[in-house]
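In this section we walk through a basic example: taking a raw amino acid sequence and producing a predicted 3D structure, encoded as discrete structure tokens. The instruction is simple. Fold the sequence below.
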Amino acid sequence: MENVVLIIHLILALSLIGIVLMQRSEGGGLGMGSGGGGGGVGGVMSGRAAATALGKITWALAAAFICTSIALTVIAASNSSDSSVLDRLGGTAPTATEEQSDAPAGSDLLPPSSSDAPLVPSAN
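The resulting token sequence is shown next.
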């Protein structure tokens, strides 16, 4: 189920990118494409914005994209149960005595004691 929703999500994302790139550019930022005299944000904020077919398709794809995003979030949350990764692998965490016995000498972060210090060659 998750794979099907993920494939639909990816198709929607690519379609949304394509539809947005096909739309006509308004010529810049907010208010740049108002077309009327006097400047301002008349074209952006007015109620007579043209509802073209590409605009409607963009809104539909965006709504579907958000729905699949929410669906993927819900599916991921339901798949992640209260168990940890170690519980799902079936392994057990090593105890403190196992860690100490399996560790090679000098593997801790403390400096070695004087008896464990390596021999330094002499300059003779």
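Looking at the output, two observations stand out. The radius of gyration is 32 Å. The first helix runs from residue 2 to 22. In the next section we compare this with other chains.
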